[in-house]
Amino acid sequence: MSILMTRAQLLLSPIFINKCQIKNRISMPAMHLNMTSDGNMNEQITDFYFERAKNKVGLIIVGGCSIDDTGGGPLMISLEDDSKVESHKRFCEQIHKTETKVFAQLYHAGRYSHSFLLGKRVIAPSPIPSRLTGVTPEEMTEEDINRVVQSFANAALRAKAAGYDGVEIIASAGYLICQFLSPLTNRRTDKFGGSFENRFRFARMVIEETRRAIGKDYPLIIRMSGYDFMGTSTPIEETVEVAKAYEECGVDAINITGGWHESPVPQITGHLPAAGFRFLSKMVKDNVNIPIFLSNRINSIDIAESLIAHGYADIINFGRQLIADPEMPIKVYHKRHNEIRPCIACNQECLDNVFNGLPVGCTVNPLAGNEGNKVKIEEVEPKDIAIVGAGVAGLECAVNLLKYGHSVTIYEENDYIGGQIIDASAAPGKQDYRRLIDYYKNMLDKLRATLLLNKRFDLDEIDKNHFDFIVLATGSVQFIPDIPYAINENSVLARFVLTKKRPYGNEVVIVGGNGVGLDTAHYIASSDTLPAEMTKFLIEYEALPLEKIKELTTKTTRKITVLDMDEKFGRDVGRSTRWIILSSLKKLGVKFVPKAKVVRIDKDGVLAEVNGKEEFFPAQTVILAMGARPNNKLEKLLKDRGDVKYFVIGDARLPSNITNAIKDGYKTAMEINKLCEVKK
């Protein structure tokens, strides 16, 4: 048995939840998809999940599924009434064509509910305004409580009738059950508030009534916030008490996550270390006798196997990782670990799409959410294709063309591949971007691309190699503004700082508060704080007071100022990530100056007009981060030549983001393949 297969031995072993056997420990947890307008399961949702099921995911948990009209909102899957059962039945029948088991998550958001958008009530334990929606809920009456308890049970019965293999009750992320458990959101003075027993009463009623409805042999699990990270809310010592109470109430497994939606702690972005909430699952697993799931930032097979081996969890949730690569499980079974396309924790097309009311997609997987539109590739006559530029647009195009049997030569003027992803990966929280480049390297090797590093492409290459198609994926260049002395001995482009090609001083002004500017500020500000191992050393040996250690870990010694003409910084950064970056930069001591129009850049600083008055910002280094322009000089040469078909993709066509670059690469490969003759 190979080392890699040994590493996945536990992950691929079966496990029982109640009397339901799951073929492996790979679970896809419930995630909002925004793929239904009427609450019914449809073709898009079915195609999405079937793509994962046929590739041997052990368990899929669907949802959240709203249980009544006060707890959900638009675009949500529904189990609110019997009319929804038929669509769920068709869905389950399709999933059960595979060996994958499927559970339904029963969902009530309480004060987080978007039911007000549908003209329905918003209810919660107490009338505490929601920071998520801005709405103040109605305090639940005892009649409301009893009705919602029954709604959970009724929804569970519908799930069972539809053919689901089990149900999950959501008691995480700050939803209704969490709101009863937390003194922050439960100010009641009746039997549902105050003591732990009273605050837990609603959860107990929901679990026990649901169990009565579905019977003792039908799997019932609960999704639990191991800790809410809400400051003066529930103490972490209550974690074990809650878990034990869940077990005593009759749940068959506990699915551990961390935090609420409004917690001031990153939960799924790259700022959270891999499997960062393992300490929560360990606390629970050591104190109960039922299987434990673990969630959040697990996108590595080796880490997953280690978590099971060392007693942190029994089942591992691969949420966004299975969006990024639905074939992940089958690749593990076939020992093709190096071919797994990684989730890079960017959230651009998954969580940010949900916040924007759009269907879930994926930055690194252009087919996510469009599985039904997967093109059937016919065998065509292979062509010789040159791809100029090895950024993600060119790499994605190359990998797909190689899969279709074409001969691909990649020209890259640098001595590495990855383009601007290498720049971006320098910023805190973006370290997983490099794993995407590793994936492309592995695929180029496997598919036998010709990769020419340190090689510029010129038109002579066409005649030498007789290329049938040229793909220009030459990226973009940073915009240099028409400002006096913009380029001088102490000014530098952000790209050169992020790639460590240029040093910078202790007093820095960054011109441009977009994503690149903020990443650069974050990179510089973090570079002189204490590294994790030194922080651990100082704490372990009590070498300094904790407050001093905290200061050295979270405060930069540099003076960093970010200027932008806009009032809002990071306007091009997604909602799920922007608050984290800005919060971190403020803690680090970075200064932000909005509405700043740069007048002149000198060798010792920047003169800017701020609110109608000129102000000078001294700097040893001025860093320019003011957007990008296409690097497409070759396009005119190819157009003038006129005898070869060419495509311009990614930033070379229009500077945008990694999502659009990868989509461009994929679509262009499809288009080229369609232009080729089908083999007879």
Structural write-up:
The chain is built from 23 helices and 28 strands. The protein has 680 residues and is α/β, with parallel strands linked by helices. The chain folds into three domains: 3-373, Alpha-Beta Barrel (TIM Barrel); 384-477 and 629-675, NAD(P)-binding Rossmann-like Domain (Rossmann fold, 3-Layer(aba) Sandwich); 480-626, FAD/NAD(P)-binding domain (3-Layer(bba) Sandwich), CATH 3.50.50.60. The strands form seven sheets. The protein has an eight-stranded parallel beta barrel with strand order 3-4-6-9-10-11-12-13, surrounded by six helices. Strands 16-15-14-17-28 form a five-stranded parallel β-sheet, sandwiched between helices.
Physical arrangement of strands within the biggest beta sheet = 3-4-6-9-10-11-12-13
Taking pLDDT < 50 over at least 5 consecutive residues as the criterion, the unreliable ranges are 1-5
Please give the number of β-strands.
Answer: 28
Mean pLDDT: 95
Roughly how many Å is the radius of gyration? 27 Å
Classify the secondary structure makeup into a structural class.
alpha/beta
Q: What count of structural domains?
A: 3
Instruction: Say what the CATH topology of the largest domain is.
Output: TIM Barrel
- CATH hierarchy, class of the largest domain: Alpha Beta
Question: Helical segment tally?
Answer: 23
Write down the overall geometry: globular
Biggest sheet features: 8 strands, parallel, barrel
- Percentage of residues in strands: 15-25%
Termini gap: 42 Å
Helical proportion, percent range: 25-40%
CATH architecture of the largest domain: Alpha-Beta Barrel
CATH homologous superfamily placement of the largest domain: Aldolase class I
